[in-house]
Amino acid sequence: MSTDAAQDQLPITQIPPRFKFVVICVLIITGVCLLSNIAIALFVDAPNEQVKDVMKVLSAGFQLGFGTILGLVGGKAA
Length: 78
Known about the structure:
single chain, about 75% helix, MFS transporter, about 80 residues, transmembrane, mainly alpha, membrane, transmembrane helix, 3 helices
């Protein structure tokens, strides 16, 4: 079973620093939205309308951030 050395090596994907920066920023923003939403849900006993609106915005921020991460990673893998 002899194989070529060229077939054994996987192609090396170069990830530019700007891409890493964008992914890290999106991860941080997504994490902050998620943790803030969880904290509000745990520590606010009777949320008023303003708090509910903030929770909706944080939830949307998390969902958008998660979709962005999937898109960035999926686009880089393709």
